[in-house]
Specification:
alpha+beta; globular; 14 helices; 327 residues; 4-stranded mixed β-sheet; 48% helix
Length: 327
């Protein structure tokens, strides 16, 4: 992680504590950020909206994909109480699967949770409680479980995110997977088709951690996530930069090949919208996501919804959230 110093301390019972050498604190900061912590919006003021190769996709095809996925989510909706109960079961399974490498407490967790809490006032389902945990794992990954459980791998924190706005981008994306019922739709589909049995929590957890959403759902989580980023006062341009500099580039960010037999969850919305997904992949994944987020940043700027294009390099370095101090 750029500019950040970590200590991994092995404590009794085999648990890891993730500790920053610089402790978060609640010191009151200036009401205005310094110029060095604010992105210039001149490029959004002067530039035209990028096409992102959308000309290759007809409005009819795109609308059909969105409509299908919306129907799927509505048809498989469960109550928020049932979703919370399922989330608790899945979180317990995650705890077991990552025993010894999962961190739920400590200064860094408090720091990241503060970022989560700055994003959640703007979600569609405000009654869900979002909780963060970090998994000590070198892979560049993050995932969410129903009921508001969010997980970040240390590999992502070390290799991908370089400031607080970029970390907020990752978190907001995972929040939207929960908020927009992507997680619930996926699990309910598996149950309805008999691909997994009710109560097979372990298999549900494994599938959800694999991040098996269609490219359309990923793009929806990106687009709706950057709305949260802007609403919380972060710069959407850092969301663009995150994907422009994604570790491994397009190959690493590419959606996995769908195997409907061994990966039924991946086939949830990918099989019936396979043509759409194939067209979306014409523009390489990481660069396409950066381009689409540039579109979103442009639209948010034009709508006057970028309230403070804050970057948060120093916040990220010292572990003090922007909600407590601006640098």
């Amino acid at each position: 992680m750029t500019g950040r110093r970590w200590i991994l301390t092995l404590v009794p019972l085999g648990a890891f504590l993730l500790v920053s050498t610089l402790q978060p604190h609640a010191e009151a900061g200036p009401k205005k950020a310094s110029a060095g912590e604010l992105d210039s919006l001149q490029q959004l003021y002067l530039s035209e909206r990028s096409s992102c190769a959308d000309a290759m996709l007809t409005g009819t095809v795109k609308d059909a994909g969105i409509a299908f996925e919306q129907v799927a989510r509505e048809a498989t909706a469960m109550s928020e109480a049932d979703e919370a109960a399922l989330g608790d079961q899945l979180a317990a399974s995650v705890d077991q699967a990552y025993a010894g490498s999962l961190v739920r407490t400590g200064p860094f967790i408090d720091y990241v949770q503060a970022i989560v809490d700055s994003l959640t006032p703007f979600v569609e389902r405000p009654d869900i409680r979002y909780r963060i945990a970090v998994i000590v794992d070198p892979s560049v990954n993050a995932f969410a479980m129903p009921g508001g459980y969010l997980y970040l791998h240390t590999g992502l924190l070390e290799a991908a995110t370089r400031n607080e706005a970029q970390l907020a981008t990752v978190i907001a994306h995972e929040i939207r997977h929960v908020d927009l019922r992507h997680c619930v739709a996926a699990i309910q589909y598996l149950l309805a088709t008999g691909m997994i049995e009710a109560g097979d929590v372990g298999q549900m957890m494994v599938q959800m951690a694999r991040h098996p959403y269609s490219s359309r759902l990923e793009e929806e989580a990106d687009a709706r996530g950057v709305e949260l980023v802007a609403a919380a006062g972060y710069s959407p341009l850092q969301s663009v930069s995150l994907w422009e500099n994604w570790p491994g580039g397009d190959a690493a960010a590419a959606a996995p090949t769908i195997d409907p037999i061994n990966d039924p969850l991946g086939a949830l919305l990918g099989t019936l919208t396979g043509e759409l997904d194939a067209l979306l992949q014409t523009h390489p994944p990481a660069s396409r996501r950066a381009c689409l987020l540039q579109q979103e940043a442009h639209d948010l700027f034009q709508a006057g919804k970028i309230i403070r294009p804050y970057i948060g390099r120093e916040n990220y370095r010292v572990g003090v959230p922007a909600s407590k101090k601006l640098f």
